[in-house]
Amino acid sequence: MPAKNRSIQKIFCSFPIYIISIIIPFLHTACTSTAQRPRIQACLTEDTGELDNTDRCRQENQISVKDRYELFMIEYDDQGQQVCREQSDSFFAHIKEVNRRKAYHIIVVFVHGWHHNAGPGDSNIYFFGKLLNKIKEKYDTAVSGVYVGWRGAVEYLNFSPVKYITFWDRKNISMVIGNGAIAELFVRMEKLSEESDNTKLLFIGHSFGGSVVFSALNNILQERFVHSFKNGEEISSSVKGVGDIIILMNPAFEATLYAPLRDIAEEKKYGDRQSPRLVVLTSEKDWATRYVFPLGRFIGTIFETRNTVKRKDRSDEYQEFSQYDMDHKALGHYKPYITHELYIEKNKPQRRESNYDYWLTKAIKERKKHDPNGEKWTYTFESGLTLKHMGRSAAANPYYIVKVDEDIIPDHNNIFDDRLIQFFKELITPVLIDIPTQKTDYRKKPYEKK
Questions:
Q1: Which residue, 86, 120, 320, 328, could crosslink 297 as a Cys pair with Cβ 3.0–4.6 Å?
Q2: Interval 323-369: pLDDT, tens
Q3: Cβ-based neighbour number of residue 197 at 10 Å
């Protein structure tokens, strides 16, 4: 073969090697190339103010606040897949280590909503850290947070008023993520948390993040509800949820999605010590879910057909529900499904009670003096917030759809009011009943089981 041809052949045969040599570095970083938190390591800080990410902790997937809490970032892409599985692996390793020490441990998972992400400077990261800090101030326990990031904000469109045209796309993506790999993350978290009697697991979702959480856990909640009853009628124990409690704040999904869970829950009766499993909090002044959401649903579902459906209530009487309203209104604004109100009652003394007093049992017991079913109870917490049962569900139904006064949540995004954070701690008292408080005098090492 002529030398010239051999040279051409050599180059031709070597070409794939050249291509591979170029691609390999990209393959090596592909797991993190699109991640906003690509470094799988901890950023150590003694100042919770570092969570504003202005100078430090800009790329790490873990922020370790000394003597306070550990905050992990786990990201998902628009196809519903984890951007980098090493992010969740590092968190699972952390849980196993805390379990090995038999430590008391509170895990809080937060899924952000529209116009947010896991990038440096996102306000939701800072305020989530504030929530973790408040929990740590109250309880003598290890505290871990998981901030689930996704493209709630489209980077090149994240400015007013253009950013609002992303409604339909981001709502769809929230459903894609909820029906994607994130269910695996939540269930694995629950499995590891259940390996220790000292671990409590809480889920919080905001806006379209509420859509992510509910889409991921709705079917699981229905299944576990059904299995909580013997022969489909008598409750065998407390109705089980996913983790210890799920809290959705100004969630942006239609009431239709909640209807199946609501229907089966309406048919049952509960013990007075039933813990809340799903709490949906919606501000009456949330313009995004009150006005933008119905408009978006109208445009996006204009060719769908809807009916009026009839369902039996707990009194064995039929109620009618408009599928049109259910499909266009966000869950927290669909009046027939609202079960509670949360407001500030002026001139009413705040309670000062032990953590071991279960507030719901006391509220129902007091109400039964006037109503044998205990419905329409009210209870004022130490935070000064009053929770009122509206009589649209059984007194201890584990699913709360709560209308929140504007003085507590003034709009769609201001969801981390100090009083509301205090209310969270009081609401989940039955969940955290075995967790020691900071005032407890232990002679053992910090976080170790008594």
A1: 328
A2: 999 999 999 999 999 999 999 987 665 555 544 457 888 999 999 99
A3: 11
Closest CA to 110 of 210, 241, 205: 205
CA pair distance 271, 188, nearest whole angstrom:
29
d(CA 255, CA 69): 35
Kindly report, residue by residue over 215-246, the tens digit of the pLDDT.
999 999 999 998 887 765 656 568 999 999 99
CA atoms 11, 15, 16, 21: torsion sign = positive
Can you give the C-alpha Rg of the chain in angstroms? 24
Q: Are strands 385-389 and 340-344 parallel, antiparallel or unpaired?
A: antiparallel
User: How are beta strands 60-65 and 69-75 bridged, if at all?
Assistant: antiparallel
pTM: 0.85
- Residue with structure tokens 């993520």? 177
H, E, C per residue of the chain:
CCHHHHHHHHHHHHHHHHHHHHHHHHHHHHHHHCCCCCEEEEEEECCHHHHHCCCCCCCEEEEEECCCEEEEEEEECCCCCECCHHHHHHHHHHHHHHHHCCECEEEEEEECCCCCCCCCCCHHHHHHHHHHHHHHHHECCEEEEEEEECCCCCHHHCCCCHHHHHHHHHHHHHHHHHCCCHHHHHHHHHHHHHCCCCEEEEEEEECHHHHHHHHHHHHHHHHHHHHCEECCCEECCCCCCCCCEEEEECCCCEHHHHHHHHHHHHCCCCCCCCCCCEEEEEECCCHHHHHHHHHHHHHHCCCCCCCEEEEECCCCCEEEEEHHHHHHCEHHHCHHHCCEEEEECCCCCCCCCCCCCCHHHHHHHHHCCCCCCCCCCEEECCCCEEEEECCCCCCCCCEEEEEECCCCCCCCCCCCCHHHHHHHHHHCCCCCCCCCECCCCCCCCCCECC
Q: How far is CA 156 from CA 53, 82, 110, 153, 292, in A?
A: 20, 22, 24, 9, 21
CA terminus-to-terminus distance, the chain: 83
The answer to whether the CB of 208 falls within 8 A of the CB of 170 is yes
Residue type at position 151: R
